[in-house]
Automatic annotation (TrEMBL), chain A:
Listed name of the protein: AP complex subunit beta
Location(s) in or outside the cell: Endomembrane system
Organism: Cyprinus carpio
Domain Beta-adaptin appendage C-terminal subdomain: 860-973
Name of the gene encoding the protein in the UniProt record: LOC109090809
Coiled coil regions in record: none
A Gene Ontology biological process term: intracellular protein transport
Automatic annotation (TrEMBL), chain B:
The UniProt record lists the keyword Membrane: yes
Keywords: Cytoplasmic vesicle, Golgi apparatus, Membrane, Protein transport, Transport
Membrane topology: Peripheral membrane protein
Organism: Cyprinus carpio
Residue intervals of the MHD domain: 176-417
Record family assignment: Belongs to the adaptor complexes medium subunit family.
Cellular component, GO, one term: clathrin adaptor complex
Protein name: AP-3 complex subunit mu-2
Length: 974, 418
């Protein structure tokens, strides 16, 4: 009893003793109290005081004023006290660099302590003190620790190299730490190997061109050995590193797969997914008729299914990845449909992903089950989910032809429920079904028309109007129905207005006698009473078409429409391949290539699935359809400039397995063909390269196909021909936003250097489209044909978005103006200067090279207006070191005029403030690669001449500041 | 790698932050709060949230959001797995993982987080190793520490971290040597209106509590190992041996751990231990609805179904429910519309039922959605998949350990549609 009561007392004492006491609010003078306690002679009091300091720090209070006092406690043999002081140091060293130097000696001493725990702790902490002055002192102790006899110290030191690299990359290179780190890959201790790999991978991320992780069969073997013995986290690093390796042949590939497969049974889902990545990638190299290939396929399914029984967050990431895997290799999970069935208490983000995969796996064999499920989901509570489920039914109908009828009847059942949003969603998807299977299910139109009044969402209204217009001849009262929509024409959204216009024209062409009045009404509504350029232009086109050539009108408006297919929602094959190489990463969650969103990605390597080194089986491999990159993948999205890309870019050359674009060495030699060519431009000329290009067999085909592809992109244009061309021009003139400043054309390539071809040009950004305006002049005596253009890798990935449209031969003394649309999805390499662009132009005579510089405003995007709060936070977030100051003189603009002018070039003013006779403008700019640039502009308001403006520019990538400033100057002065 | 961690409580306050690299301003969490506001339910916050310069990856555990901040390309699963490990460690150290417990032990928490990650790289995440480095706080130790001035920080080198068996600490000693294994299976199932199974699968785990002296080497064999074709092992299990002989051979960690988890997929025939007869109906134009529910045992291999709990989210239109349970108690929350019925044990002779009426809003139309019924239950001494342990042997040590194996089946996400 006595013991029990004592325990109770202790318990009471215990609760009073907990750390929550440190959370008492900051009283005035608390800092002084702490200071006194820190300097106390009593060890215990000291420690308590440090604990209090740490606790305050944890909750975000500023206790940096105590820095010298805490550092004084550092020289102690009490391990906990030492650790606490180290914790404090890491947090505040940055703000007190001079004080932090006081701690250096203790670190150096601790690095030689007989206790490896202390050595490791010291080297670990030193690396976390992000103060430049200290890093120099760090080098010697670090070098010793990297070669320490104790593996615990070595593995800690390996990570420290990565930390140091983050602070001062040059220092790390100069001190030779990278080589030491590479040596650690062969360390006897697996933990050390894993940490060395992790550190190297992180360093390599900021060093895309270095061959830090130079993988060869020996290192691979070491990694595979370490893989079995290191911690789960180490396994992830090693697997991710392995995924970058390019096996020499299918046997090596198989042996790696065999040694990686056991990782599929790991309890850590990140290990499993990284293993899946390696297997998915290396599998590509295995012959499809190999028994092992089949075994491997079977082994992949269970771990993926198991991931779905984990916590919802894990499920979500797994599902996003499975979405990629089922697109690449549907055979893996084709029997596992049921695990994707939705449980009603799954979080919404899991539900939506499961639904997506269900559709991807839907086939004739399981469609009945899938439809039953989808119908069930359509009665759930969550509106978003219900909508998506209804949409899924439509996608099933389009994907599995045999099921279309069943899908339609399911949709009709759902329409009968009269639940408003279900009906609307159903009508939208039925429209798609009509487009896929024309003249098959029109019997349901009557049912649809019954629900006309309940439609209040634009998409559903537009869909219904489309149906009425398309099947006007079968709907007796089509004119009445459309007329009823016409009453509120001006209140409708653009989508509905456009659809209504087209539908009534269709109706008129089908039943001209009764509907003349209606069509006139809608045309005048669209052309005279509307402010919307799209609507107006379409109205004019129809009007002129109908009045000049009704036959042509019929051909255009009632033309046969291309069938839609399920493919439209598939990921484009090249992107899919890249994403498969990034399974388990953020890229795979967002289904975007890493270059698209990893901020300031300093040159992301585009990864490719290795091509099968064809040894005769290539013919058999064709049964897997779109798998091998060697077979031209079915182009879902028209392949834009790819044809020309083939022509000039060796990277895309036939799969000779010797050109693995992933190998870093390749990146180093980067220039590929063009680079060489440019060198030759500088030096003496060599014709061999040009010869190679000319001889490329794909060239002729490329140019032959390109013009044919154009008309489809324009849609209805070809049927009408010249007459309409004017109209389109007209439309263009009206609709084009008055835009940014465009510099006059300058000569880029003088005729002397290019065998008579003179090229001058400029760059422009019009309505979000980047264009390179070129003037080609033939100053030679012979006709020039077969023009093509290609860019070298450049800082912002500019690349032609289409072929160079010089369709007619250029005769002597003729000049032609061409506008070449550019995209920013090309390969990225940092150029010097940043805005330099190296171009190769080819014609029937030769290949010519020149370089030009584009204004950075070319890549300022239209949605570059930042939210104010975000601006404030970002401005604070960017270190002051990244700020650059500029002056712009002789500007005769006031702040409003300036900000209007800048807005035209996508430099957006977010806020304006007037302080002490100065206008301060806060502006933001977003580059195509997602980098934000923030600016603060100061203009003297008192001065009538406004001769001087001051500009501060802040950006995470400080190298762009200079170029942004040049754009300001250019825009403001012109 | 992982930059920072913020802990956010249910009311949306950041109560702890830890930075492993440079300090990331708290304001980055504003993006998380925006997502939180948009989410209809606390668990609907998307796990990965992009911000202009960072990515936020969060998990929700014990009503606390663990928000990790990353800046470069880091595998999200890696981050999520790590966050789970943080939660497990807190629970292991403090018994519960609550805001109060974390605040009470903030210094230990800070020390732990510092030990778990170094510059964003995982350092020591195994509970065995962590406990060598930082002793868990106990009431007694806190008292002793305050009196004697000693600390929570261990003085030895975490040698386990470097050995071939990094999961086991060295020099373990017990007077009673014992090894217990729990085979626990959860059935996830969706049953349709008519009572037929749409999908059913089993998630099984074998949790162990091993307190053995020295470096014991254990083998565990099964009567029917063929059931286990989809397994995830604790790193201690020798994979080669399993592949070749279907025997689990391992040097166990000290204390509690999950030896393996397995999955019996929907393609196998999964026994469904309970059935539900239901009639939940609303009539057009009437403000009353009927509710009838009867439970019964199905394939239970003669074992009793216990701790049965039925819950169902009734349609929004339902105002109240007036029901009569044949056993147990029921509650209906008129605000959340959640009906739950604590049934207890199912007596096969006298099946439990819940019958009565629901009142609807006057004049409201018949609800569109059909409620789903969620069932929880437990069956002791049965692994519903039929998995049975054959024998457990110990090598490498001389003493004779005490061994025990327990089986249990539970409902996981067991849902009946109506």
């Amino acid at each position: 009893m006595e013991w029990a009561s004592q325990l109770c007392e202790n318990r009471g004492l215990g609760s009073k003793m907990t750390d929550s006491k440190y959370f008492t609010t900051t009283k005035k003078g608390e800092i002084f109290e702490l200071k006194a306690e820190l300097n106390s002679d009593k060890k215990e009091k000291k420690k308590e005081a440090v604990k209090k300091v740490i606790a305050s720090m944890t909750v975000g209070k500023d206790v940096s004023a105590l820095f010298p006092d805490v550092v004084n406690c550092m020289q102690t043999d009490n391990l906990e006290l030492k650790k606490l002081v180290y914790l404090y140091l890491m947090n505040y060293a940055k703000s007190q660099p001079d004080m932090a130097i006081m701690a250096v000696n203790t670190f150096v001493k601790d690095c030689e302590d007989p206790n490896p725990l202390i050595r490791a702790l010291a080297v670990r902490t030193m690396g976390c003190i992000r103060v430049d002055k200290i890093t120099e002192y760090l080098c010697e102790p670090l070098r010793k620790c990297l070669k320490d006899e104790d593996p615990y110290v070595r593995k800690t030191a390996a990570v420290c190299v990565a930390k140091l690299h983050d602070i001062n990359a040059q220092l790390v290179e100069d001190q030779g730490f990278l080589d030491t780190l590479k040596d650690l890959i062969s360390d006897s201790n697996p933990m050390v190997v894993a940490n060395a790999v992790a550190a190297l991978s992180e360093i390599a991320e900021s060093h895309p061109n270095s061959n830090l992780l130079d993988l060869n069969p020996q290192t691979i073997n070491k990694l595979l050995t370490a893989l079995n013995e290191c911690t789960e986290w180490g396994q992830i690093f090693i697997l991710d590193c392995l995924a970058n390796y390019m096996p020499r042949d299918d046997r090596e590939s198989q042996s790696i797969c065999e040694r990686v497969t056991p990782r599929l049974s790991h309890a850590n889902s990140a290990v499993v997914l990284s293993a899946v990545k390696v297997l998915m990638k290396f599998m590509e190299m295995l012959p499809k008729d190999l028994d092992y290939y089949g075994t491997l396929l079977k082994k992949l399914a269970p771990p993926l299914v198991t991931l779905l029984s984990a916590e919802p967050e894990l499920q979500y990431v797994a599902l996003r990845n499975i979405n990629l895997i089922v697109q690449k290799r549907p055979e893996i999970l084709k029997h596992e449909m049921k695990v994707f069935f939705v449980k009603y208490n799954d979080p919404i983000y899991v539900k939506l992903e499961k639904l997506d995969i269900m559709i991807r796996l839907a086939s004739q064999a399981n469609i009945a089950q899938v439809l039953a499920e989808l119908k069930e989901y359509a009665t759930e509570v969550d509106v978003d989910f219900v909508r998506k489920a209804v949409r899924a039914i439509g996608r099933c109908a389009i994907k599995v032809e045999q099921s279309a009828e069943r899908c339609v009847s399911t949709l009709l059942d759902l329409i009968q429920t009269k639940v408003n949003y279900v009906v609307q969603e159903a009508i939208v998807v039925i429209k798609d079904i009509f487009r896929k299977y024309p003249n098959k299910y029109e019997s349901v139109i009557a049912t649809l028309c019954e629900n006309l009044d309940s439609l209040d969402e634009p998409e559903a209204r537009a869909a219904m109007i489309w149906i009425v217009g398309e099947y006007a001849e079968r709907i007796d009262n089509a004119d009445e129905l459309l007329e009823s929509f016409l009453e509120g024409f001006h209140d409708e959204s653009t989508q509905v207005q456009l659809q209504l216009l087209t539908a009534i024209v269709k109706l008129f062409l089908k039943k001209p006698t009764e509907t003349q009045e209606l069509v006139q009404q809608v045309l005048s509504l669209a052309t005279q009473d509307s402010d919307n350029p799209d609507l107006r232009d379409r109205g004019y086109i129809y009007w002129r078409l109908l009045s000049t050539d009704p036959v042509a009108a019929k051909e255009v408006v009632l033309a046969e429409k291309p069938l839609i297919s399920e493919e439209t929602d598939l990921i484009e094959p090249t992107l899919l391949e890249e994403l498969i190489c990034h399974i388990g990463t953020l890229a795979s969650v967002y289904h975007k290539p890493p270059s698209a969103f990893v901020e300031g990605s300093r040159g992301v390597q585009h990864k490719r699935i290795p091509a099968r080194a064809g040894s005769g089986e290539s013919a058999e491999s064709s049964d897997v359809g779109q798998s091998g990159p060697s077979e031209a993948p079915p182009a879902v999205i028209p392949s834009q400039g790819d044809l020309l890309g083939d022509l000039l870019n060796l990277d895309l050359a036939p799969p000779t397995a010797t050109v693995p674009s992933v190998q870093p060495s390749m990146q180093m030699g980067a220039m590929d063909l063009l680079g060489g060519g440019l060198d030759s431009l500088m030096g003496d000329e060599s014709d061999t390269l040009g010869g190679d290009i000319g001889g490329s067999p794909s060239m002729g085909a490329g140019l032959g196909v390109a013009p044919a592809a154009m008309p489809t992109a324009l849609g209805i244009a070809p049927a009408v021909g010249g007459g309409l061309g004017d109209l389109f021009d007209l439309g263009g003139g009206v609709g084009m936003p008055t835009g940014s400043y465009v510099a006059p054309k300058t000569v880029w390539l003088p005729a002397m250097k290019a065998k008579g071809l003179e090229i001058s040009g400029t760059f422009a950004r019009r309505g979000g489209i980047i264009q390179m305006d070129l003037t080609l002049t033939n100053k030679a005596m012979s006709v020039m044909t077969d023009f093509a253009i290609q860019f070298n890798r450049n800082s912002f990935g500019l690349a032609p978005a289409g072929p160079l449209q010089v369709l007619t031969p250029l005769s002597p003394n003729q000049t032609i103006d061409v506008s070449l649309p550019l995209s920013t999805s090309g390969p990225v390499m940092k150029m010097e200067p940043l805005n330099n662009l190296q171009v190769a132009v080819k014609n029937n005579i030769d290949v010519f090279y020149f370089s030009c510089q584009y204004p950075l405003s070319l890549i300022f995007v239209e949605d570059g207006k930042m939210e104010r709060q975000v601006f404030l936070a970002t401005w604070k977030d960017i270190p002051n070191d990244n700020e650059a100051q500029f002056q712009i003189k002789d500007i005769h603009l006031n702040s409003d005029a300036a900000s209007n002018k800048l807005q035209g070039s996508n430099i957006f003013t977010i806020a304006k403030r007037t302080v002490e006779g100065q206008d301060m403008l806060y502006q933001s700019v977003k580059l195509t690669n997602g980098i934000w640039v923030l600016a603060e502009m100061r203009i003297q308001t008192g001065n009538p001449n406004y001769t001087e403006m001051e500009l501060s520019i802040k950006c995470r990538a400080p190298e762009v500041c200079q170029f942004v400033f040049l754009c300001y100057e250019l825009v403001l002065k012109n | 790698m992982i930059h920072s961690l913020f802990l956010v409580n249910a009311s949306g306050d950041i109560f702890l932050e830890k930075h492993w690299k440079s300090v990331v301003s708290r304001s980055v969490c504003d993006y998380f709060f925006e997502a939180l506001e948009r989410a209809t339910e606390p668990e609907n916050v998307p796990p990965v949230i992009p911000t202009p310069h960072h990515y936020l990856i969060n998990v929700l555990r014990h009503r606390i959001y663990f928000v990790a901040v990353i800046q470069s390309e880091v595998p999200p699963l890696f981050v999520i797995e790590f966050l789970h490990r943080v939660v497990d460690t807190f629970q292991d150290y403090f018994g519960v993982c609550t805001e109060a417990a974390i605040k009470d032990n903030v210094v230990v928490v800070y020390e732990l987080l510092e030990e778990m990650l170094d510059n964003g790289f995982p350092l020591a995440t195994e509970s065995n190793i962590l406990k060598e480095l930082i002793k868990p706080p106990t009431i007694l130790r806190t008292v002793v520490n305050t009196i004697t001035g000693s600390t929570n920080v261990g003085e030895q080198l975490p040698t386990g971290q470097l050995s071939v068996v990094p999961w086991r600490r060295t020099g373990v000693k017990y007077t009673n040597n014992e090894a217990y294994f729990d085979v626990i299976e959860e059935i996830d199932a969706i049953i349709d209106k008519s009572g037929s199974t749409i999908t059913a699968e089993i998630q099984g785990v074998i949790d162990a509590c091993v307190k053995l002296t020295g470096m014991p080497d254990l083998t565990l064999s099964f009567m029917n190992p063929r059931l286990l074709d989809d397994v995830s092992f604790h790193p201690c299990v020798r994979f080669k041996r399993w592949e070749a002989e279907r025997i689990l051979s391992f040097i166990p960690p000290d204390g509690n751990f999950r030896l393996l988890s397995y999955h019996v997929s929907s393609q196998n025939l999964v026994a469904i231990p309970v059935y539900v007869k239901h009639n939940i109906s609303f009539r057009e134009g009437s403000s009353q609805g009927r509710f009838e529910l009867t439970l019964g045992p199905k394939q239970t291999m003669g074992k009793a179904v216990e701790s049965v709990l039925v819950s169902s989210q009734l349609p929004r239109g339902v105002l109240n429910a007036n029901l009569n349970p044949s056993q147990g108690t029921y509650t209906f929350d008129p605000v959340t519309k959640l009906l739950s019925w604590d049934v207890g044990k199912i007596n096969p002779q006298k099946l439990p039922s819940l019958k009565g009426s629901m009142s609807l809003q006057a004049g409201a139309s018949k609800p569109d959605e059909n409620p789903t019924i969620n069932i929880q239950f437990k069956i002791q001494q049965l692994a519903i998949s039929g998995l049975k342990v054959n024998r457990l042997d110990m090598y490498g040590e001389k003493y004779k350990p005490f061994k025990g194996i327990k089986y249990m089946t539970k409902a996981g996400k067991f849902q009946v549609r109506t």
